[in-house]
Specification:
By secondary structure, the chain is mostly helical. The chain has a single domain, classed as Amino acid/polyamine transporter I (Up-down Bundle). It is built from 20 helices and two strands. A hairpin with a 2-residue loop joins β1 and β2. α4 crosses α11, α4 crosses α19 and α8 runs antiparallel to α17. It is globular and about 65 Å long. It starts with a helix and ends in a 13-residue tail after the last helix.
Length: 460
């Protein structure tokens, strides 16, 4: 039995076309934030292997996303992944997916915001990362409460700046290559304590998992499914966005490793890309690029809060929380039609996670991505077999079920190799296991014991 407040939830306005959703989604996953923030931490972990990690991680992301695109095309709801999984595998596993998103959402936004100060230091030396991140999240939360079409226009403008910054970095590296592509991809090297050493398989696996998380996110287009004019087309849109995102991230990572005169010094820098830009560009161009990167990172925060405001709004409609909380989350702004309370909740949660530090945030995010692969690809297999997905007019994943099997193998391999890395991979996986256990307990002792049980709402 559904909470009456959830069953009578107001509907979001169908104001978006595919171009607007693509701009919002690319802004959410933010190629610039993924490269210049998460990518910087991957360089610290994997040295020159960061380029290989992004290439392999991007390919894994594409394989994984086929199932997400198919299931999302059949269930294009504002709840995104948890709504998809719940409608195919049942409420219990949908709630586990919700728990994983509860962990990953503020982590993603905090990672993004934490990088703004790194690229403002060229203009404002000594600026503190945490206060800047919190201020950026506060401003983003306020802007995210505007009409979604206005948000799409704002993020589209910033997205152009973001792609231009990535293109400039790529040009700087490929214009004057220092080492060959084969050397970069076939002999990845790590740098620790001032020494150079071949990168271990375990460290590369952790870097691939982190890079796959960094290149993923096109499925966030599904969160806008209830505001898209033709929601069934969202599956094809997700695949197109994935290909664009991978290309715009892999190229600058390759350029960094190929074009850096001193890999060890670059990897040791707090911000490897800022160091690279300072080496290769004039001071004025370096400052311009750094400001462009900071603007792009802010844009990712804005788009991310817009996106995940829809997700937490959906949790109110699905009556996940106590009735007063559900009622509050379901409130729409009387003028803009945006889920303003849910939007503020997302922004405030991300501010709190900024206090954890970038390294801890990246580790958590990488481990959580592996569980998402497993749940969504299981939903893809079960959904096609039961006739719930891949129907007429919706997206069908190619090479079924091969891509799903490859996703399972990739997730299992990365999980096993990551577990062997006791410094970074294992702590992240332990935390994720704890979150999954907590979600199962909440479902069993709270949701499933409600009169009539608990199920997800199917929007009309």
């Amino acid at each position: 039995m559904q909470d009456p407040q959830a069953a009578a939830a107001p509907r979001l306005r169908r104001d978006l076309g595919p171009l607007a959703v693509a701009m919002l989604t690319l802004s959410v996953l933010s190629p610039a934030a993924s490269v210049f923030i998460a990518g910087a931490d991957i360089v610290h972990q994997a040295g020159s292997g960061a380029a290989l990690a992004f290439l392999l991680g991007g390919l894994l992301t594409l394989v994984f996303t086929f199932a997400q695109a198919e299931v999302g095309s059949s269930f294009p709801f504002a709840g995104g992944d948890y709504a998809m999984v719940g409608h195919v595998l049942g409420p219990r596993w949908g709630f586990v997916q919700f728990g994983m998103t509860m962990l990953s959402t503020p982590v993603f936004l905090a990672i993004t915001a934490s990088g703004i100060a790194l690229y403002l230091r060229g203009v404002l030396p000594g600026v503190a990362p945490v206060p800047v991140a919190i201020a950026a999240l506060a401003l983003s939360s306020l802007l995210a409460m505007l009409n979604v079409r206005t948000g799409a226009i704002i993020t589209g403008i910033f997205l152009g700046i973001e792609l231009a910054a990535l293109a400039l970095v790529s040009l700087l590296g490929f214009a004057e290559p220092v080492r060959g592509l084969g050397h970069v991809l076939l002999a990845p090297m790590g740098f620790a304590g001032g020494t150079t050493h071949p990168l271990s398989v375990g460290a590369l696996a952790v870097a691939i998992a982190a890079a796959s998380w960094a290149t993923s996110g096109a499925g966030q287009a599904i969160y806008f499914g209830e505001e898209l004019h033709s929601p069934a087309q969202v599956g094809r849109l997700v695949i197109r966005i994935t290909l664009i995102a991978i290309a715009t991230m892999v190229l600058p990572m390759l350029a960094l490793v190929i074009g850096s005169p001193d890999l060890a010094a670059m990897a040791a820098a707090e911000s490897p890309f800022a160091a690279f830009i300072a080496q290769r560009a004039s001071p004025v161009l370096a400052m311009v690029i750094s400001l462009g990167i900071a603007a792009a990172i802010f844009n990712a925060n804005l788009a991310g809060i817009i996106c995940y405001g829809r997700w937490i709004w959906s949790s109110g409609r699905d009556a996940i929380w106590p009735a007063p909380v559900n009622a509050a989350l379901l409130r729409l702004h009387p003028r803009f039609g945006s889920p303003w309370v849910a939007t503020l909740v997302v922004g405030v949660a991300a501010m709190g996670f900024c206090l954890l530090g970038l390294r801890a945030l990246v580790i958590i995010a990488a481990a959580g991505g592996i569980v998402n692969w497993l749940l969504i690809n299981t939903a893809g297999l079960v959904g096609r077999r039961r006739g719930l997905t891949g129907g007429p007019g919706t997206y069908r994943a190619p090479l079924y079920p091969l891509t799903h099997m490859l996703s399972f193998a990739g997730a299992a391999g990365l999980a096993l190799l990551g577990w062997r890395d006791v410094d970074t991979g294992r702590p992240g996986e332990v935390l994720v296991i704890g979150v999954m256990a907590a979600a199962l307990l909440y479902h069993h002792f709270v949701l499933a014991r409600r009169p009539g049980g608990w199920a997800l709402v199917t929007p009309g």
